[in-house]
Design a protein that fits this description.
The complex is a heterodimer. By secondary structure, chain A is of the alpha/beta class. Chain A is 39% helix and 19% strand. By secondary structure, chain B is of the alpha+beta class. Chain B starts with 30 loop residues before the first helix and ends in a 13-residue tail after the last helix. Chains A and B meet through β4, α3, β8, α4 and α5 of A and α4, α8, α9, α10 and α11 of B.
C-alpha cells in the first residue's frame, strides 16, 4: 500500500510523495558517519506515484526532506501499514535528510487534487488532508467574493482578503499545520557543515499556499469568462491594465507590460484596495429607539394615540468610533467632537479623531446616502429618523454597512422571531382528547377542525387588533412594550387567514404546519398546536407523553422503560402513517425496539423490508431469532438470491426480508413491486448522500411506514439529515436546493440560530434521539453492557478460509501426537487470522479496505464512537493486526491512534496512557491482548472492542476491565467480534450454552480443541453455508 | 505654420518623468478634474492640445509642484534644458478663506466627503455663493508662463502641465483648494478650530502626519483617489500573509513526536457573515483613473457575479473520514 503525503513548495506548487509499505524499512547499513542525505528507503517511486494517483501530467522531481529518523532509518508515518508491526524501536529520534521522488503540481492542478484527495483511493497523510482544508477555504473565499485582483511581479493574481472570521480560521489552520507539510528543505541545499537549511516558516508557507489556491479557485470559477473582451489596445499603464485583465482568467497568469507600467498598475491597485481590510478604528452606527413616552398597554386608546398622518419620529442612528479589533471600545461622536487632538479612550494613539470620524462618515455615506442628511451640521453625532427611515436602516442600510466593515449596533428585538407577525395553526381533533394514543386513534386521513391565530411572537392578536395595526401603515410598531416589525403584505395575508378556518385532514395539517412556504410574503407559521396525541407529536414531546407500550407477546425479552417509550413512539408514528428516525445513542438497543415493533405486527400486516450494510445481515438474523423467533425471516442477498416468482414466494412467506444496500440498488425494480408494510433502513448514514444510487433506490421503495435507524447524530450534517428525512417523510423538508438555501447554508455557515430553531421544530417530531448521558435514560442502563457482534466473511475471506480447512484437515488426518496438536493449533490461528483480515494471513502488505467483514463493522462502530465524542479500546491477540489497525484507522480518521504492543518500552507505554486519558487526547487505543491486558487504567474509554477472541473469559474480562474500573463514570459497552458460520461462532455458541464442553473450555484457552476427533474438528472448522454475504 | 524647428523634433526622453496615468482618451475622471480641464480645452485648440496630452503621457513633465497661487512645473522639450512652466491663479485672500471656513465648518458633510476622496458638487456652490468661484471661469484668470520659444499660449508644455494637474486633482481634491490658498493640513486645522474646539498649537501638524497619508506632492503616482483612511498602517491588506502575521513557528526538531500530525487541534470553523459577492466592489471607491476608473470596477463585476453563482460542488471535498 501507499501512503500519500503532501508538501507545499515555494512558488505555489504542491508536491506529493508516498511511503510504500512493500519496501524495506531501512537502508542497507553503511559504515562511517551518516551522510548528509540518503535516498529514502521506502519512498514510492515515480511510476508507482503516477499510477496510484493517475497523474500522468504531473512533473517528476525529487525533494530533500528532513524526517524523524531513528536507528538509521526514517520513521514510518502513522498511516503506514506494515505486516511486521512493532519493530523494536531503539535510540534517539533525530531529524535527518532523506531524498524522495515527488510529483509536482502547479496551483491549478493542486487545487483539483486537493478538492478530492480521497478520490484517488489512496491512503492520505494528515498533512495532505490539512492542505485539502486550506483548499476548501480558498474555494469558499472565492464563492463569497472575498478576493481582490492584484499584481505579483509580471503575473496577474487573485488574492484572498481575510478579515474577521476568515482571518481567524486561516490563523487556526496555520497553527494546526502538521510539520510534515514543511519537511522539504532548500534544494539544492546550501553546502556547508550544517545538515540542511531551516524548514520554511509556517506562516509563510500557509500564506503562499492559500494565495496560490485562492488564485486557482478564482480561475476555476471564472472558467470561460473573459474580462478584457472589448477593451481597446493601448500603451503604457492602460495597455498594462488591458493585458492584466486578460491574465486574470485562464491558466496564463503572466502578462506583457513594461516594468514601469506594471509597477504603476500595482500601485494603483494597492491604492484602490487600501480600504478593503478595514481600518483599526472604524465608524460605528447605533440605532436608538425613541424614548418611551407612554407605555399604556395596547390597544387601549390605540385610536387616540395612533398617529395617523404623521409618522412616528424619534428614532436616531448615533455615530461613534470603534476599535475594530476590540469592538467593546466605543467612543461616541459627541466625545470625538470634544477631543480635537487625541482620543486615548480608543487605545493606541488615535490622533486627529475628528478627521478619522469624518473620513469614515464620508466613506459610509457612499454606501448609505441617507447619511448625508446628518452631515449638514458642524458636529454631527446622530441621524434622526422617522419610523419608516428606521425600518429602512434596519432592513437595507445596516446590513450593507456591517458587511463593509463598519460597526453596527441594532436593538436586540430586531430579527428576533418574537418581534415578527406570524401565524399559528390550532387544530382540535374530533376524537376525545386526552386518551392514550392507540392504533387508529388518529390517522393521517382523519379530519380535524382548525383555525388560524395570528400572533406577534407569543402574543395572540385579535382581528380587531390586526385591523388596527394595518390601518397604522407603519413598518415598526410598539406593542405591549416591545417594538415589532409589521409588513403590510404579511398583515394583509394575516387578515385573510383569520377569515379562513374550517376542517382539514391531519396530513394537510402537518404539511401546512411543518413545511415551510418558500414565498417571502406569506406569513411564517410559528407553530401548530393541537390537542391530544397529535398535539404531543407536534410539540416533539410524543415520546415523553405516550404511555409506554409493553413487549408484545411474540417478543422474547424484556424492554427497559425507555425502550418501551421508544416502542410507543414508533407505534404512534405508524398509526399516523408517518415515518420516523430512531437515532438513539449506540448501545441503547435500537435493534430490540424495532424487533419489538415487528413482533407486534398483526398477522395480516404484510412484510417488512429491512435494508442494512452487508456487515449487519448476520447480526439481524441472530437478533431476530433470539428476540422474535416467530418472525419468518428471509435474507435476500448473495449471487444465488431468489428472483422473479421465487422471490415473490419468499416474500409472501416472510414477515421480515433482510437485504443490503447494494442489493437494494441492484434489485430496485423487483423490490419496488412488493407492497411493503414497512421499510426500515439500518445504519441510515448509508443513504446520507441523496444522489447515490442506493439512496435513490431505497427512497423509491413504496411502503406504508418508513423507519430510519442510525446511531450517528444526524442533526450535525444537514445535507445528511435532508437525505435521511427524505426517505422517512418524503417532501417534509422541501426540495434539496431550497433546503440548502434556507437551512443548511444559514445554519452551518452563518450560525443562524432562528433557522436552526425552525428546523428543530420541523424535524423534532420525527427524530427520537436519546443520549446515554441523559439522566432519565442512564438510570435504566447497566454499568457494563456486553454484546456479541456477528460479522460476515467477505468472498475473499471465505475462499481463503475454505482452502485452509481443506488443506489442514488433510494434514491433520495423516498425523498424530505432538505434530497433530501443533497442526490443530496452527489451523485455529490461521482461521482466526483470516477472520480478522486476509492481509493478516497473507502478510503481503496489501491494502486493507473492503476485504474484511470485521473491519467494516469496526469502522461503522468507531464512526459512531467518534460522532459521540467518545473513546474506545481495541484488543487483538495479533500484534501484526494491531499495527495494521492502527495505521488503517489513523489514515481513515486523520487522527492519531495509539498502539501498545510487547515492543513498547515502559516509559513510552506510560506516556501513551497519560495522553489517552487526557481530554482531547487520542480517541482510539489499539492494544495487543498480551501487552495491554493488565495493569493499565484506561477509563477515558467507555467502549471496548475485542476484535478477535482468546476464548478465555478471564483474560478477556481482565482486558475489558482496563476501561471498566474505578474512575469510570459512564456505562461501558463491550463488543466481542465473531464471524458468522466460522469456528469463532461455533466456539462462542458452546461457551454461551454453558453445557457439555463449556466446563472444560472455560479458563483453558484453546488447548481442548487439540483433543477433538478429526470428525469433530471437521464439524468445528467447516464453514457453514450462508456465512458469506456479499 | 510659423514655428521653431524644435517643434518638429521629438522631445528628449525623460528618466522617471511624471506620466499621465490615463493613457488614452480623455484625461481626468472626476467631475472636478474634467471641470478644470474644460477651461483649457475651451480655449486651446488643435495640435497643441493633442501634443500636450501626448507629452503628459510620455512623462515629459519632470516635476509638478502645487502651491497657493501657483503651480510650477518643469517640462522636458526637445532642447537640452527643460522648460519652466507656471500656472498662476490668484489665491483667495485670508478673509475670503475665513468666510469660506465658516460655511465649510458648519457642515461636516464637506470635510467628510473631501477626506473620503470626493469633491462634492455642493462645494462649488459654496465658493460661488461667496463670490469666489472655485474654478477659473476663463483662461484669462490664469497667469500662464512657459519659457519655450513657442509664442502661442498655451503651448504644449503648458497643456501637458494642465493634464497632469487635472490628474493630481483627481487623486486628491484637496490639491485644488491648496492651489487656491489653503493646504490640506492648514484647512483641516482651520475647520477643526472653527468647529468649536481650539486645537492646541503644535498638536495639529503631528496629528495630520500620523493619521492621513500625506497628499502626494506631484499627485501623479501612487494614486490616493480611494480616499484617506484612518490608521493606514503600512503593508498590504490583501493576501493571506496580512492575516497570518505573528503565527508562532516552532522549529521542526522540537516537534518530532508530532511530526505527522496537527500540533494543536483544529477548532470548529467560525461562522461567516452572509454577504453579496460583489460587496468589495461596492465598498471600495472607484479605482484610479489611470487604470480605468469606475470602468474597471464594471469590468470586474461579472467576475464577482460568477464567483457568487458558482454552486458549491455536491460532493464533500474534504470529508472528515474515509
Amino acid at each position: 500500500m501507499l501512503v500519500v503525503h503532501g508538501l507545499w513548495l515555494d512558488g505555489g506548487r504542491l508536491a506529493l510523495w508516498g511511503e510504500d509499505s512493500t519496501l524495506p524499512d531501512r537502508p542497507p547499513r553503511r559504515a562511517g558517519r551518516a551522510p548528509r542525505e540518503r535516498p529514502h528507503p521506502f519512498a514510492a517511486s515515480h511510476p508507482a506515484l503516477v499510477e496510484a494517483l493517475d497523474a500522468g501530467k504531473a512533473a517528476t522531481d525529487t525533494a530533500l526532506l528532513m524526517l524523524p529518523t531513528r536507528g538509521g532509518g526514517p520513521l514510518d508515518s502513522p498511516e503506514l501499514v506494515r505486516v511486521d508491526a512493532g519493530r523494536p524501536a531503539r535510540g534517539q529520534v533525530t531529524l535527518a535528510g532523506w531524498r524522495v521522488p515527488v510529483l509536482v503540481f502547479d496551483a491549478d492542478h493542486a487545487l483539483e487534487l486537493l478538492r478530492g484527495p480521497d478520490r484517488t483511493g489512496q491512503v492520505v497523510g494528515a498533512g495532505l488532508r490539512h492542505l485539502a482544508t486550506l483548499a476548501e477555504l480558498a474555494v469558499d473565499l472565492v464563492a463569497r467574493g472575498r478576493v481582490l485582483p492584484g499584481v505579483d511581479g509580471d503575473r496577474a493574481v487573485w488574492r484572498p482578503l481575510l478579515t474577521g472570521a476568515d482571518a481567524g480560521w486561516a490563523r487556526a489552520l496555520a497553527m494546526a499545520l502538521p510539520p510534515a507539510v514543511r519537511a522539504a528543505v532548500a534544494d539544492p541545499p546550501v553546502p556547508g557543515p550544517t545538515a540542511a537549511g531551516p524548514a520554511p516558516g509556517t506562516a509563510g508557507l500557509v500564506a503562499d499556499a492559500l494565495d496560490a489556491l485562492t488564485d486557482a479557485a478564482a480561475r476555476t470559477a471564472l472558467d470561460g469568462v473573459s474580462l478584457a473582451t472589448g477593451v481597446r489596445r493601448a500603451t503604457g499603464v492602460a495597455g498594462a491594465t488591458r493585458a492584466w485583465l486578460g491574465a486574470l482568467t485562464g491558466r496564463q497568469r503572466t502578462f506583457r507590460a513594461g516594468a514601469a507600467a506594471r509597477e504603476q498598475l500595482a500601485a494603483e491597485l494597492a491604492g484602490w484596495q487600501r480600504d478593503a481590510g478595514g481600518s483599526p478604528v472604524r465608524a460605528c452606527f447605533r440605532l436608538v429607539e425613541p424614548p418611551v413616552e407612554d407605555d399604556a398597554p395596547w390597544p387601549a386608546g390605540a385610536s387616540d394615540q395612533a398617529p395617523t398622518g404623521e409618522p412616528a419620529t424619534g428614532w436616531r442612528v448615533e455615530f461613534a468610533l470603534q476599535a475594530a479589533d476590540e469592538p467593546s471600545l466605543v467612543v461616541d461622536a459627541g466625545q470625538v467632537w470634544a477631543s480635537p487632538d487625541r482620543l486615548p479612550a480608543l487605545g493606541g494613539d488615535l490622533d486627529s479623531p475628528q478627521e478619522t470620524l469624518l473620513a469614515e462618515l464620508g466613506r459610509a455615506s457612499r454606501l448609505w446616502p441617507r447619511l448625508d442628511d446628518a452631515l449638514r451640521t458642524a458636529r454631527p453625532d446622530a441621524l434622526p429618523l422617522d419610523v419608516a427611515g428606521a425600518h429602512r436602516f434596519l432592513r437595507d442600510g445596516a446590513p450593507v454597512l456591517h458587511a463593509a466593515g463598519f460597526g453596527v449596533l441594532l436593538p436586540s428585538w430586531w430579527r428576533r422571531p418574537s418581534a415578527r407577525l406570524g401565524a399559528r395553526l390550532q387544530a382540535r381533533s374530533r376524537t376525545a382528547p386526552g386518551t392514550v394514543a392507540t392504533a387508529s386513534a388518529v390517522g393521517l386521513e382523519s379530519i380535524v377542525d382548525y383555525q388560524w391565530e395570528l400572533s406577534l411572537g407569543d402574543e395572540p392578536l385579535t382581528a380587531d387588533e390586526l385591523g388596527e395595526l394595518a390601518r397604522l401603515k407603519t413598518p415598526l410598531v410598539r406593542l405591549r412594550g416591545q417594538w415589532v416589525e409589521l409588513d403590510a403584505k404579511r398583515l394583509a395575508a394575516g387578515l385573510r387567514l383569520l377569515r379562513a378556518g374550517g376542517e382539514m385532514t391531519v396530513a394537510d395539517l402537518l404539511r401546512l404546519g411543518l413545511s415551510t412556504p418558500d414565498d417571502p410574503e406569506s406569513l411564517p407559521v410559528l407553530g401548530v398546536s393541537a390537542d391530544g396525541p397529535l398535539g404531543d407529536l407536534l410539540a416533539g414531546q410524543a415520546e415523553r407523553h405516550l404511555t409506554p407500550v409493553d413487549e408484545p407477546p411474540a417478543f422474547r425479552g424484556t424492554l427497559r422503560p425507555y425502550q418501551k417509550r421508544g416502542l410507543a413512539w414508533l407505534a404512534f408514528l405508524q398509526s399516523l402513517g408517518l415515518g420516523g428516525v430512531l437515532a438513539d445513542d449506540m448501545g441503547l438497543g435500537k435493534t430490540v425496539q424495532l424487533l419489538a415493533l415487528l413482533a407486534g405486527d398483526g398477522p395480516d400486516a404484510g412484510p417488512t423490508l429491512l435494508v442494512c450494510p452487508m456487515s449487519l445481515v448476520g447480526n439481524w438474523e441472530r437478533e431476530a431469532a433470539k428476540f422474535a423467533p416467530d418472525l419468518r425471516l428471509h435474507v435476500h442477498h448473495g449471487a444465488d438470491r431468489a428472483r422473479g416468482p421465487r422471490f415473490a414466494d419468499a416474500v409472501a412467506g416472510a414477515d421480515l426480508v433482510v437485504t443490503t444496500y447494494s442489493v437494494a440498488a441492484r434489485d430496485a425494480v423487483a423490490l419496488a413491486e412488493t407492497g411493503w408494510h414497512r421499510v426500515v433502513v439500518d445504519e441510515a448514514q448509508a443513504i446520507k448522500n441523496a444522489a447515490t444510487r442506493q439512496a435513490a433506490a431505497v427512497r423509491a421503495l413504496p411502503a406504508r411506514h418508513r423507519i430510519a435507524i442510525t446511531g450517528t447524530p444526524v442533526e450535525n450534517r444537514l445535507a445528511d439529515l435532508w437525505s435521511i428525512m427524505e426517505f422517512a417523510n418524503p417532501g417534509l423538508l422541501g426540495p434539496a436546493a431550497t433546503f440548502r438555501r434556507r437551512y443548511a447554508v444559514p445554519i452551518e455557515r452563518h450560525g443562524d440560530e432562528p433557522a436552526a430553531q425552525r428546523l428543530r421544530r420541523i424535524t423534532g417530531p420525527f427524530v427520537l434521539r436519546r443520549l446515554k448521558t441523559d439522566r432519565s435514560i442512564i438510570t435504566d442502563l447497566p454499568e457494563k453492557l456486553e454484546m456479541d457482534v456477528l460479522c460476515n466473511l467477505t468472498g475473499e475471506q471465505a475462499s481463503l478460509y475454505r482452502a485452509i480447512v481443506d488443506d489442514m484437515l488433510a494434514r491433520i488426518e495423516n498425523s498424530e501426537g505432538i505434530e497433530r496438536r501443533g497442526l490443530v493449533l496452527a489451523t485455529m490461528t490461521r482461521l482466526k487470522q483470516v477472520c480478522d483480515h486476509p492481509a493478516l494471513l497473507l502478510r503481503d502488505g496489501s491494502a486493507l479496505p473492503g476485504r474484511s467483514g470485521k473491519l467494516a463493522r469496526l469502522e461503522e462502530i468507531l464512526d459512531e464512537v467518534a460522532a459521540a465524542g467518545e473513546k474506545a479500546l481495541l484488543f487483538t491477540q495479533y500484534a501484526e493486526f494491531g499495527g495494521m489497525l492502527r495505521a488503517h484507522l489513523s489514515a481513515r480518521t486523520g487522527r492519531e491512534v495509539l498502539f501498545l504492543h510487547g515492543g513498547v518500552a515502559k516509559a513510552d507505554r506510560d506516556a501513551m496512557v497519560t495522553r489517552f486519558q487526557r481530554p482531547g487526547g487520542p480517541a482510539l487505543f489499539v492494544l495487543s491482548l498480551k501487552a495491554g491486558g493488565t495493569g493499565l487504567t484506561l477509563t477515558a474509554a467507555n467502549h471496548v472492542v475485542h476484535v478477535d477472541r482468546w476464548w478465555n473469559p478471564a483474560v478477556e474480562d481482565q482486558a475489558t476491565d482496563r476501561a471498566f474500573r474505578i474512575g469510570q463514570r459512564r456505562s461501558v459497552q463491550v463488543r466481542k467480534f465473531v464471524c458468522a458460520g466460522t469456528v469463532e461462532e461455533k466456539i462462542a455458541a458452546m461457551i454461551g450454552d454453558k453445557r457439555g464442553l463449556a466446563a472444560k473450555i472455560v479458563g483453558t484457552g484453546e488447548q481442548w480443541v487439540t483433543e477433538l476427533s478429526t470428525a469433530d474438528l471437521r464439524a468445528l472448522f467447516a464453514l457453514d453455508a450462508g456465512a458469506v454475504v456479499e | 505654420m510659423s514655428a521653431d524647428f524644435a517643434d518638429y523634433r521629438p522631445p528628449r526622453p525623460v528618466e522617471g518623468g511624471l506620466r499621465a496615468r490615463s493613457t488614452r482618451g480623455a484625461i481626468g475622471e472626476s467631475w472636478w478634474a474634467r471641470r478644470f480641464l474644460a477651461v483649457l480645452e475651451s480655449f486651446a485648440l488643435g495640435t497643441r492640445l493633442t501634443r500636450g496630452r501626448s507629452y503628459a503621457r510620455k512623462g515629459q513633465v519632470v516635476s509638478l509642484d502645487v502651491a497657493p497661487g501657483a503651480v510650477d512645473a518643469t517640462v522636458q522639450g526637445s532642447r537640452p534644458a527643460p522648460y519652466r512652466v507656471s500656472i498662476g491663479l490668484r489665491p483667495f485672500p485670508d478673509e475670503v478663506w475665513d468666510r469660506l471656513a465658516e460655511t465649510l465648518a458648519g457642515q461636516a458633510f464637506f470635510s467628510a466627503r473631501l477626506l473620503a476622496g470626493d469633491l462634492p458638487p455642493e462645494l462649488e456652490d459654496v465658493f460661488a455663493a461667496a463670490g469666489t468661484p472655485l474654478f477659473p471661469a476663463s483662461i484669462g484668470e490664469l497667469d500662464l508662463r512657459c519659457n519655450c520659444p513657442d509664442f502661442a499660449v498655451p503651448c504644449k508644455h503648458l497643456a501637458a502641465t494642465f493634464y497632469l494637474l487635472a490628474e493630481a486633482f483627481d487623486a486628491d481634491p484637496f490639491q485644488i483648494l491648496h492651489w487656491r490658498g489653503r493646504g490640506r493640513a492648514e484647512l483641516l486645522a482651520h475647520l477643526r478650530t472653527r468647529r468649536g474646539d481650539p486645537a492646541g498649537p503644535g498638536a495639529e501638524a503631528a496629528g495630520q502626519q500620523a493619521l492621513l497619508p500625506a497628499g502626494t506632492p506631484g499627485g501623479t503616482s501612487g494614486g490616493t483617489s480611494a480616499g484617506a483612511r484612518a490608521g493606514g498602517g503600512g503593508g498590504p491588506v490583501v493576501g493571506a500573509a496580512a492575516a497570518l502575521a505573528g503565527i508562532p513557528d516552532p522549529p521542526v526538531d522540537e516537534v518530532l513526536d508530532g511530526f505527522w500530525r496537527a500540533p494543536v487541534p483544529l477548532p470548529v470553523r467560525p461562522a461567516t457573515l452572509p454577504a453579496v459577492p460583489d460587496l468589495l466592489l461596492r465598498q471600495l471607491g472607484p479605482p484610479g483613473a489611470a487604470i480605468g476608473g469606475p470602468g474597471l470596477a464594471e469590468r470586474l463585476r461579472p467576475a464577482y457575479e460568477r464567483f457568487g453563482s458558482a454552486e458549491p460542488s455536491a460532493g464533500e471535498p474534504t470529508a472528515p473520514a474515509r
